[in-house]
Amino acid sequence: MSIDKIDEIRKLYFGASPATIQRDFERAIDIVKSIEDEALRGKAAVFMEGLAEMRKEWKGAKGRR
User: Fold this and answer.
1) What CATH code is carried by the domain that includes residue 47?
2) What is the pTM of this model?
3) Cα 31 from chain centre
4) Which of the two residues, 25 and 3, has the higher pLDDT score?
5) Which residues have a Cβ under 8 Å from the Cβ of 1 and sit 6 or more positions away?
């Protein structure tokens, strides 16, 4: 069910760390692609934006060390 997919993306979002962000982001993209309902995709977008921002910040922080 698509709501379970939203919950999985949510768990990826809250469980992400600098060590897992790339894998979590890629998994979340795969999940979003499998959601057919546009309204539910909209709900997933909130978490996707957050994951993308964390990925950007953590990638930049790694490069500055």
Assistant:
1) 1.20.58
2) 0.84
3) 9
4) 25
5) none
